[in-house]
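A quick word before the example. In earlier lectures we treated sequence and structure as two separate objects. From today on, think of them as two lines of the same record. Here is Protein SirB1 N-terminal domain-containing protein written that way.
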Amino acid sequence: MRVDLLHRFTDLVGPSEAAVPLFDSAMLYAAALQDGDTWAEARVAQTEIEHAVVDHCAGRAGAVDVTEGVLEFLRRNRFRGNIRSYEDPRNSLMDRVLERRLGLPISLSVLAIHLAERCGVELHGLSFPGHFLVGLQPEEAGAEPQVWDPFRGGRRLLLDELAALFTSVVGHHVEPDSPELHVHLRPCHSRLILTRMLENLRRHFGMADELERVADTLELLAALHPEVPQIREMLEQHPPQRHLLN
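And the structure line, produced from the sequence above:
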């Protein structure tokens, strides 16, 4: 991994208590893990899709309508969940998601969040057990949450469907009004979303026995969580190979 890109990532994510620019950080860690080889093309693709989604959602009013427009845009442009090759590391590299139009629940959600932001809507990531969703904060206390699944075509999920999905993952029955369910419908912070994405990559690389890539993801995780000594301890077992320029 190029040390200059690692330093740029470290500067971008800032100290552990700072807010993290989610999409830009995801794009930058993807560049770092690929030695910057795809960076220029990825930024062009990013700009093109940003302009296209703003045009697509022009005239839509309200957060729900804009969100539906963003998810419709992703469907029409054939962005979809990579069900056949779920463990492919490219599903977690944002530049490759833009290129191949395939991703995991979390990477497609990060893309949807970014595009919604470009259209003026604050969409949130929801760290659901075994899955990842996006949602809008209810405007009124007690209102039903508004949740969508970018991995499955941007389908909107009602509370009973969310309870059924939760039940299928945790192995015991959960009612739609259960606090156990609703705690996972709260917005997930950007730093935790990036952590989950990098942990996915660390698992993928570990399964493929790509130890150098495991070390690279640990370096990025250490930059994201400098306050966690266990990451540095793991790095001692997998020392990274750094270089200045490719």
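Notice the following. Residues 219 and 235 are 7 Å apart (CA to CA). We will return to this example when we discuss secondary structure assignment.
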